[in-house]
């Protein structure tokens, strides 16, 4: 997978002054467009579209300083319809406009070319199983929250703290399917997984019962799930598991991410500093 991903990176480099089709990049990487976006964001720490934009403006910056072509010619070459649009994008990345950069020889920001490598650290194994599930329904309380990659997600903390404990007790009694108990369910994530993008967050259960008044039901189609387990400090161990699944597990196994909610079952220690967690991710086998 990483070799194919690097081939897609080479394709980007050869087309910085042309249109770049994400679907075409996915074909080069021999995976789905959805999985490519998710994989890239997890490995690079930025959306694929943001990387392409930064690489274009890095190369464009060098041409601005060189002074061989007009600013409008450079703008058009790298896909901007006007000098004003180019100037806004240029300033967002470099902190200075292209005209000023050319006049003063300003120091610009460079986005390096990315190459992906699999680095094996430590000797522990990732614990997982693959499960085929019929369709099921999540029933619970729902809100919209920003995505946070590291550290506590205050929006989720505030939401959960605001739920009446008796409401959670009633919900937990409805749980009748695996994974059992109260769950954290994330759905409708932006494929880029960029920090700050929003997602639907549910605190609920998987049940065959009707949704009680005041709750929301999320119907989940049948499909395959990869189930990962981890124990450790909260939230670091869980966030690192999410990262490692994309950085290590997907590149080493014949699966890719598919559309669907991500489900987390957490059992906290008495002092609530550590947890045993089970992460369910929707997957499908890669095509041969």
SSE topology:
Blueprint: H1 2-14, H2 22-28, H3 33-44, H4 48-66, H5 71-77, H6 83-94, H7 98-104, E1 127-133, E2 136-146, H8 154-161, H9 165-174, E3 183-187, E4 198-206, E5 216-220, E6 223-233, H10 236-252, E7 255-257, E8 262-268, E9 274-285
Antiparallel strand pairs: 1-6, 2-4, 2-5, 3-4, 3-8, 6-9, 7-9, 8-9
Short description:
The chain has 288 residues and is of the alpha+beta class. The chain has helices spanning 2-14, 22-28, 33-44, 48-66, 71-77, 83-94, 98-104, 154-161, 165-174, 236-252, and strands spanning 127-133, 136-146, 183-187, 198-206, 216-220, 223-233, 255-257, 262-268, 274-285. It contains ten helices and nine strands.
How would you characterize the largest beta sheet?
A: 9 strands, antiparallel
Radius of gyration: 22 Å
Mean pLDDT: 91
Shape: elongated
Q: How far from one another are the termini? A: 12 Å
- Strand percentage: 15-25%
- The count of strands amounts to 9
Helix content: 25-40%
Count of alpha and pi helical runs = 10
Low-confidence stretches: none
Write the element-wise H/E pattern from the N-terminal end onward.
HHHHHHHEEHHEEEEHEEE
Give the helix/strand class: alpha+beta
What are the main properties of this structure?
288 residues; alpha+beta; 10 helices; 39% helix; 24% strand
Note down, in words, how this protein is organized.
Helices cover 39% and strands 24% of the residues. It is built from 10 helices and 9 strands. The protein has helices at 2-14, 22-28, 33-44, 48-66, 71-77, 83-94, 98-104, 154-161, 165-174, 236-252, and strands spanning 127-133, 136-146, 183-187, 198-206, 216-220, 223-233, 255-257, 262-268, 274-285. The longest helix is centred in the N-terminal third of the chain and has 19 residues, at 48-66. The protein starts with a helix and ends with a strand. The mean pLDDT is 91.
């Amino acid at each position: 997978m990483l070799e194919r991903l690097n081939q897609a990176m080479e394709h980007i480099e050869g087309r910085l002054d042309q249109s770049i089709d994400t679907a075409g990049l996915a074909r080069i990487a021999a995976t789905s467009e959805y999985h490519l976006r998710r994989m890239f964001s997890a490995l690079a720490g930025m959306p694929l579209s943001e990387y392409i934009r930064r690489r274009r403006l890095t190369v464009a910056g060098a041409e601005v300083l060189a002074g061989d072509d007009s600013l409008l010619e450079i703008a058009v070459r790298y896909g901007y319809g006007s000098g004003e649009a180019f100037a806004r994008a240029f300033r967002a990345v470099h902190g200075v406009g292209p005209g000023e950069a050319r006049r003063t020889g300003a120091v610009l920001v460079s986005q390096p070319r990315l190459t992906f490598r699999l680095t094996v650290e430590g000797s522990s194994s990732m614990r997982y199983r693959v499960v085929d599930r019929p369709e099921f329904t999540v029933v619970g309380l729902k809100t919209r929250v920003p995505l946070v990659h590291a550290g506590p997600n205050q929006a989720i903390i505030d939401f959960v703290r605001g739920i009446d404990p008796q409401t959670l007790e009633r919900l937990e009694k409805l749980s009748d399917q695996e994974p059992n108990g109260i769950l954290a369910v994330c759905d409708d994530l932006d494929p880029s997984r960029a920090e700050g993008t929003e997602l639907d967050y549910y605190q609920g259960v998987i049940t065959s019962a009707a949704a009680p008044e005041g709750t929301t039901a999320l119907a989940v189609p049948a499909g395959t799930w990869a189930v990962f387990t981890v124990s450790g400090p909260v939230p670091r161990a869980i966030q690192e598991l999410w990262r490692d699944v994309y950085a290590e597990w997907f590149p080493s196994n014949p699966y890719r991410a598919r559309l669907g909610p991500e489900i987390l079952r957490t059992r906290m220690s008495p002092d609530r500093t550590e947890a045993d967690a089970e992460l369910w991710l929707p997957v499908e086998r890669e095509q041969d």
